[in-house]
Amino acid sequence: MNFPSHIEDKIFEISYDSDNLVSKVVSYLRFSESERQEIISLINNDTFDGFRSVFTDTVSDEEWNKTKDQIKKKFRDELFDIDSM
């Protein structure tokens, strides 16, 4: 599945079902409603509700672009901390 870069950059993981259809989209932060609608349109599934996020915060695109590297690093660092426990 090819998503536009402004969407793909926010995605942590995509899961597929046995029919190779998108079953879950995990983002670093919550998608905006317009981003959700764009993804629903791209995957051609009007009833899709498999949106999940690692963090519950929402930020503007401008804020995301300024902080995305820090957010991704924080997530990676927290994962490594879990592994070392």
Q: What does this 3D model show about the protein?
A:
- The protein contains 3 helices and 3 strands.
- With 85 residues, the protein is an alpha+beta fold.
- It has a 3-stranded mixed sheet, with no helix packed on it.
Identify the notable features of this structure and list them briefly:
alpha+beta, three-stranded mixed β-sheet, 85 residues
How would you summarize the topology of this molecule?
Layout: H1 5-8, E1 11-16, E2 22-27, H2 33-43, E3 51-53, H3 61-83
Parallel strand pairs: 2-3
Antiparallel strand pairs: 1-2
Describe the structure concisely.
The chain is of the alpha+beta class. It has helices at 5-8, 33-43, 61-83; strands at 11-16, 22-27, 51-53.
In angstroms, what separates the terminal alpha carbons? 35 Å
Measured on Cα atoms, how large is the radius of gyration? 14 Å
Strand order of the largest sheet: 1-2-3
Strand content: 15-25%
> Structural class from helices and strands?
alpha+beta
Number of strands: 3
Residue runs with pLDDT of under 50 for 5 or more positions: none
Main β-sheet description? 3 strands, mixed
> Average pLDDT, to the nearest integer?
87
Write the element-wise H/E pattern from the N-terminal end onward: HEEHEH
Q: Helix share of residues?
A: 40-55%
Q: How would you sum up the global shape?
A: globular
